[in-house]
Design brief:
Elements (H helix, E strand, L loop, with lengths): L19 E4 L2 E7 L6 E3 L8 E3 L6 E7 L2 E4 L4 H10 L5
């Protein structure tokens, strides 16, 4: 069962939403998929960790943990390709 962060009781209609789900005394941060808006619960999030949406399979990178925030992963290849197109002027 989920509990309200402010009251410690099960949430009631009209309670303000927050970004943390509570199961007993454990806090489970949550975020939303960038593509399908599915709720994703993250157990022990770490900055830089990769997570996958259970609904659509999109892979995302955790970019901040307080508050929990995700973004599309940075593709290291784009940087190398960009540098190949530029030539240094002499």
């Amino acid at each position: 069962m989920l509990y309200c962060a402010q009251t410690g009781h099960p949430p009631q209609d009209g309670d303000a939403p927050n970004n943390t789900l509570h199961q007993g005394d454990e806090q489970m941060p949550k975020t939303y998929c960038l593509e399908c808006d599915a709720v994703i619960e993250v157990n022990k999030p770490r900055e830089g960790a990769m997570i996958r949406c259970p609904q659509c399979g999109l892979e995302m990178e955790i970019v901040d943990i307080d508050p929990l925030d995700v973004d599309y992963p940075l593709d290291d290849d784009w940087y190398d390709d960009e540098n190949d197109e530029w030539e240094e002027e002499e």
